[in-house]
Amino acid sequence: MWLQAIIGISVVFLALIALSFFIFLFGKIMNREKKSKKAPSIKLNANKKITVEIDGDDELIAVITAAVSTYLNSNGLSPECKIRVTTFNRVTSKSSIWNESSKQELVESL
Amino acid sequence: MSEFFSGIGQLLANSGFANLQWQEFLMLILACFLLYLGIVKKFEPLLLVPIAFGMLLTNLPGGELFHSELWQNPLQQGMAGYSVNWHPDYGQVLQTGGLLDIFYIGIKTGVFPPLIFMGVGAMTDFGPLLANPKSFLLGAAAQIGIFLTFIGANLLGFQAAEAGAIAIIGGADGPTAIFTASRLAPNLLGPIAIAAYSYMALVPFIQPPIMRLLTTKKERKIVMKQLRPVSKIERIIFPIVVTILVVMLIPAAAPLVGMLMLGNLARESGVVERLSKTIQNELINIVTILLGLGVGATATAANFLNLNTLMILGLGLIAFAIGTSGGVIFAKIMNKLPGDQINPLIGSAGVSAVPMAARVSQKVGREENPNNYLLMHAMGPNVAGVIGSAVAAGILISLLG
Fold it and tell me: Is B211 near chain A, with CB under 8 Å?
């Protein structure tokens, strides 16, 4: 009985560790393929041409950079402004209580 | 005139009122109570309502909808001519069986639970698990409740096969519990299924105290790194790889894991949308009705009103609590190793019960830090738990069947 229980839990772990290992490796290979593709270079036609070089992990960075540049230019803040977005992270939410509660409602309705 | 009265008298003598035993009466009250829990308290109503109604029908005297004698070996263990390999006579079932006997064929032959699993697969998004493969370990750790309860049930005097069927309640997965019980201990199917579904519904009450007890305030506040997006190719390859790996390792898990992954492949491949829709709607609904009624039918007074049922309910609860603790404690151990920090609250979601257990993790986490969204992180161990309990079921069936 003890033996059966020990065999049982060991095989469960063995099977799921094997799966976990495989998925981990596969995820790595997929990500490397994605990264090895040439980083996108986006040209914008604002008042001035802005070239954004990105070697980050995907196009989202490019889009954010372009949006920020366009915004700065269109507000005449600093046409010469050169920015470079290297990473983007979620910050602790500072949204209003209404936003938070609607987000929570959405999660709970799942 | 006297003929009229004797006719009426005969009808009354044949009616259920004249033939009702007190045990059956008690079962009718119990069935009504379960209906109340399903309808008013919303305890897994999709399954509890058909199960409770099956229970009601099977205990009404004279209805002859279910005949437990057709499904039980007439010879007891130790009697002359007793064989372990006894099988019900399906010809006899088709000829003399009632409506619920016919539905029960689908459970006895192990057809319905895998079909339900196919629907579950088609409804499940394995993305959070693919994004964080470590979740698999939490899904495995939560299965420890099954194996510890197996030992406990053995010590309480249940036979090994029965102990295995009872222990699987700790997997918190209805179809898996029904499948395992129908294979290992069909005589205990009613109480096991009712315990499994009731405890799944009670997840929001059973788990939080255990989770709070085992974690510190600081641990509950841990905010986890955002999950990476998962590509379509990964999603498509996943069900194929799981099927090959798991079925090669534990062939007895093939019906459950195979159907779960077929359902998921139909969802993720994107080329069989019509099949996917049918699997996750019409098919699973039809099978749920038949499965629920068939399971409820086995809960006859003779099968249900005994000490074993109470012990099963108790052991099931213990299995569930140990599984929850196993997941939380394992997450704490993983935090001691190098790598990204894990909020131990997601460990408890390793006991399947999708998506309720993940929502509990989210809720308890939010109590400490209102800006912490653990739901998607908890979905990883949660869906890993479904695979884990199917694997555990396969192991129990091949070791004890």
Answer: no
A62: closest CA of chain B, how far (Å): 17
Cα gap A7→B50, rounded to integer Å: 37
Q: What's this model's pTM, rounded to 2 decimal places?
A: 0.81
Instruction: State the nearest Cα–Cα gap between B382 and chain A, in angstroms.
Output: 13
DSSP readout, A1-69?
-HHHHHHHHHHHHHHHHHHHHHHHHHHHHHHHHHHHSPPPEEEEESSSEEEEE--SSSHHHHHHHHHHH
- Which amino acid, one-letter code, is at A90? R
Among the listed residues B142, B395, B194, the one whose alpha carbon sits nearest the alpha carbon of residue B304 = B194
Strands A49-53 and A41-45, by their bridges, are: antiparallel
Cβ-contact B316, B153 below 8 angstroms: no
Reported ipTM exceeds the 0.90 cut:
no
CB contact under 8 A, A104 and B233: no
Whether the bond between B355 and the residue before it is cis, its omega within 30 degrees of 0, is: yes
Tokens of A69: 């540049």
B42-66 residue pLDDT tens: 888 888 899 999 999 999 988 889 9
Cβ contact, residue pair A12, B143, below 8 Å? yes
Spatial separation of the C-alpha atoms in residues A46 and A78, rounded to whole Å = 13
- Please state the domain extents for chain B: 112-280+306-400
Q: Report which of B57, B74, B115 is spatially closest to residue B283, judged by C-alpha positions.
A: B115
DSSP, collapsed to helix, strand or coil, labels residue A100 as helix
Rounded Cα gap, residues B250 and B174, in angstroms: 20
Distance CA B238, CA B268 (A): 10
